[in-house]
UniProtKB/TrEMBL annotation, chain A:
Superkingdom per UniProt: Bacteria
Single annotated GO MF: quinone binding
Organism per entry: Thermoflavimicrobium dichotomicum
Ranges that cross the membrane: 6-25, 76-95, 107-126, 147-165, 177-197, 234-252, 264-284, 296-315
Gene that encodes the chain: nuoH
Protein name per its UniProtKB record: NADH-quinone oxidoreductase subunit H
Record EC number: 7.1.1.-
Assembly, per entry: NDH-1 is composed of 14 different subunits. Subunits NuoA, H, J, K, L, M, N constitute the membrane sector of the complex.
Enzyme class: translocase
Top-level taxonomy: Bacteria, Bacillati, Bacillota, Bacilli, Bacillales
Automatic annotation (TrEMBL), chain B:
SUBUNIT field: NDH-1 is composed of 14 different subunits. Subunits NuoA, H, J, K, L, M, N constitute the membrane sector of the complex.
NCBIfam families: PRK07756.1
Protein name: NADH-quinone oxidoreductase subunit A
GO MF annotation: an example: NADH dehydrogenase (ubiquinone) activity
Annotated membrane topology: Multi-pass membrane protein
Length: 325, 122
């Protein structure tokens, strides 16, 4: 069993790297199809090696550090951004037995550790000593802290229904009743929007708005240092799609008694749906304006998240509904 | 339980190790031909003007302050939410009333900020 404790995370690391490689490929293909294009199809059969070639190219790129940059912070920033992205995966249970750290405060751990990445991004923007990078970093920090509040508050309803912050317990609470997406629908919508904003994906990709900020906080980064910012971003997609599956869609539990399909496959199905949903959204939505972005978090999502908490408490008192809450 | 915390430590170590190892071995592969022109800060092709470490608008700090307030609220809400069912049977609806009062105070603060147009991004 100790073998699993040491080797399991290493295997997961390679699975995540494989996921990131093919998520990027799949994203480009999906957006290509939606926009009536072919997408990458030159490298390897059906373009399957496109991202592998891109990664190799990044690996042999010269590592340019601007002369005016704060060199030690510049080198530290991608590591600070990436480490929490992988560390949050420790508390994600993939099935009832396939999990790494089974701690009581799993959900809180996820929220707390994932916010460390903001520091890495801000640090990267600051250390570059570049106007675009600093603006992108500041915007990114402002966006991430603003959307973290609704993200954290929208899952309070789930914690009230499940009576636990342990992600395995939250899934078990959904197996006896209905999936939390139905009773916690308001919480789910707030969580989904805030999660997309936390991932800085379209329509909330303002920190990287090419048209005004060149590339945002990683303007000065090249080669593998840049790659680690991108890797952190896609690792968070892996983590966030898993978290939505666990919190609102019953994790590995099978719907309609279709138990002949193994739990892990169910988890992967639901997980992949949310990954696809993010790509679909990127091809569909325009980018929103920065003033709309901030006002939406504080004036719409925050009141709705608080409302969801009290609705959950209220529904617990209504005899017919209380079984679902 | 101890095994869980060992797992967390391994995840953190791996998360630090991957970028370090990749960047170290990348050094053996990538070229290194520094030129003074390469090390100029990027500013759309022209020479950079002025300093980039500038003073920032106060609105960033206002949002940071609001964030701290509501994050602390979340810290209080989580244990309350987890033990809600237990406290509900032990103390009755008082547990809900108590939290309503707490959240109401913060909501008054939010409404004040709203009316003062702090939440607007100008």
């Amino acid at each position: 069993m100790d073998f699993f404790v040491i080797l399991g995370p290493v295997v997961l690391l390679f699975i995540v790297l494989g996921f990131v490689t093919y998520a990027i490929f799949f994203e480009r293909k999906v957006i290509g199809w939606i926009q009536n294009r072919v997408g990458p199809n030159q490298v390897g059969p059906w373009g399957l090696l496109q991202t592998v070639a891109d990664v190799l190219k990044l690996l042999i790129k010269e590592d340019v550090i601007p002369q005016k940059a704060d060199v030690s912070l510049f080198k530290l920033a991608p590591i600070i951004a990436y480490t929490p992205a992988f560390a949050v995966l420790a508390v994600i249970p993939f099935t009832e037995s396939l999990k790494f750290a089974d701690i009581a405060v799993g959900l809180l751990y996820y929220m707390a550790v994932s916010s460390i990445t903001t520091i890495g991004i801000l640090l990267g923007g600051w250390a570059s000593n570049n106007k675009y990078a600093l603006l992108g970093g500041m915007r990114s920090a402002a966006q991430m802290i603003s959307y973290e509040i609704p993200l954290v508050l929208s899952v309070v309803g789930v914690a009230m229904s499940a009576g636990s912050l342990n992600l395995t317990e939250i899934v078990k609470a959904q197996q006896t009743g209905v999936w939390f997406v139905l009773p916690q629908f308001l919480g789910f919508i707030v969580f989904l929007i805030a999660a997309i904003a936390e991932l800085s994906r379209t329509p909330f990709d303002l920190p990287e708005a090419e048209s005004e900020l060149v590339a945002g906080y990683h303007t000065e980064y090249s080669g593998f240092r840049f790659a680690f910012f991108m890797l952190a971003e896609y690792t968070y997609i892996f983590a966030m799609a898993s978290l939505i599956t666990l919190l609102f869609f019953g994790g590995w539990s099978a719907p309609f008694g279709l138990t002949f399909i193994p739990p892990l496959i169910w988890f992967i199905f639901k997980f992949l749906f949310f990954v696809f949903f993010l790509f679909w959204l990127r091809a569909t939505m325009p980018r929103i304006r920065v003033d709309q972005l901030m006002e939406f978090a504080w004036k719409v999502l925050l009141p709705l998240a608080i409302l969801n908490i009290f609705l959950t408490a209220l529904f617990k008192e209504i005899p017919v509904l209380s079984q679902f809450y | 339980m101890e095994k869980s915390y060992l797992s967390l430590a391994i995840f953190f170590l791996l998360g630090i190790a991957l970028p370090m190892v990749a960047l170290f071995f990348g050094r053996l592969l990538r070229p290194h031909r520094p030129l003074p022109e390469k090390a100029i800060t990027y500013e759309s092709g022209v020479d950079p003007t002025g300093d980039s470490w500038v003073q920032f608008h106060v609105r960033y700090y206002l949002f940071a302050l609001l964030f701290v307030i509501f994050d602390v609220e979340a810290v209080f809400l989580y244990p309350w939410a987890v033990s809600y069912d237990l406290l509900r049977t032990e103390m009755g609806l008082f547990i809900l009333v108590e939290m309503t009062i707490f959240v109401l105070f913060l909501l008054i603060g939010l409404i004040y900020a709203w009316k003062k147009k702090v939440l607007e991004w100008r």
